[in-house]
Structures are given as structure tokens and as C-alpha cells.
Amino acid sequence: MDSNETDGVCYPQPRTSEERVAIARDFVGRYEYPIELVVDRIENPADAVYAGWPERLYVIDAQGKLTYKGELGPFGFDPEAVEALLDALP
User: What predicted TM-score, i.e. pTM, was given to this entire model?
Assistant: First the structure.
């Protein structure tokens, strides 16, 4: 994407978990991202378990319990449902 080049946010494909985390840290720092970000290890175990392809919205609570699994995206995204659920969490 041209805008990614312009904004300096193009990265080579990470080959290690550490490289993947470094990219995530850059994103969080650059955009002052206020939500905790979780990064899948390079072997992609979370991707294998949650089958996030095509994209889905998930909410996992502080105890690690899956509390919301959205429909396939992007047309099945329901950000309002996610927001309501997040607002209801302790």
C-alpha cells in the first residue's frame, strides 16, 4: 500500500516471534494504541485455534476465556456488539 510506504510502516515479513513483537511495539508506540495488544508466536498457534481467516472479531476476558466470537468479516463484523460486551466487562 502506497500510504504504508509514505508513513514508514512497511516491514519485512517477520521470521521470529521477536521480530513480530518488535513490529507490534512499533505500532503501539507510533500510534499510542490504548488497548492491550497480544501477538501470536511465529508458529501461529492462536491462529490455528481460533481460525481467524477470514477475519473475525474476538473478545477474550482477563481470565483467558473466549467471551465473544464474531461472524466472518468484514461483512459479519458487529463493532457495536463488541463495544457493548467490553463496556460490560468488570
Answer: 0.59
